[in-house]
Amino acid sequence: MNSLNSEAFVLFDQHILWSDMVGNILGLAGLALGWRRSIWSWPVQFLSGLILFGAFFGHLTGSAGKQAVVMTVALYGWWQWNRDRSGSADGHITPRFATWRERAAMAGAAAAGTVAVALLFKAYPTLSWDPWPDAYIFVGTIVAMYAQARGMVEFWFAWLLVDLVGVPLNFANGYAFSGFVYVIYGALVLWGMRDWWLRSRTGSRPALEGAPA
Fold it and tell me: What is its main location (predicted)?
């Protein structure tokens, strides 16, 4: 696994690692496939997590643990989309807006999860260099992946909120390639959000509780 952490090239005086480059490119591809509502979004996201897990294992325990959680959520997303797409006319999931109850649950879980993970990172400094923003990005990613698994349009809003912190954090920590990828994430999120929003209007309308704001 040491080869994953070897240098691929230098960009703007930043040393780009193979693991950083390959893992983030696969993550970007997984998000693009999610935009297209392709079931292959989940295997690609799982592979991205697996590569980064292998790169971090034995070196950055906290980062490796985060990728293990990402892979677990990817398996859940694969199972959920396989179940939901069977009832769709085009063989893909039908995007929908979350109910107000679901929104409140995700917001509460994100807030509580961020505090809990940040306190864990602060208690064990070797797990993270930047406890609070790192916890925010980690928990936000899990919430976004969960919303994607349930076919919620809010999935894109969650990713956008992650990007707002992820871009400056990656550049500040010297992960230039990750920072550039997050910028591309932002553009892809806006396109994907528009597509899912429009598709949610052409699909089955939610109940009154789930009506969009």
Answer: membrane
Q: Give this prediction's pTM.
A: 0.81
- Distances 55 to 64, 65, 105, 118, 146 between C-alpha atoms, Å: 8, 12, 33, 22, 24
Residue spans of alpha helices (H) in the chain: 18-35, 41-56, 61-84, 100-123, 131-149, 154-172, 176-202
Q: How far is 50 from 64, CA to CA, in rounded Å? A: 9
Return left, alpha or beta for 15; rule: phi > 0 is left, psi -120 to 50 is alpha, else beta: beta
Q: In whole angstroms, give the CA distance from residue 89 to residue 116.
A: 41
- Tell me: the pLDDT tens digits for 64-115? 777 888 899 999 999 999 988 765 656 678 899 999 999 999 999 999 999 9
- 181-207 tens-digit pLDDT: 777 878 888 888 888 988 887 754 444
Pair of tokens at residue 61: 């325990």
How far is 32 from 203, CA to CA, in rounded Å?
Answer: 21
Which of 68, 55, 40 is CA-nearest to residue 5? 55
The size of the chain, in residues, is: 213
Distance CA 190, CA 53 (A): 28
**Number of CB atoms found within 10 A of residue 16's CB:** 19
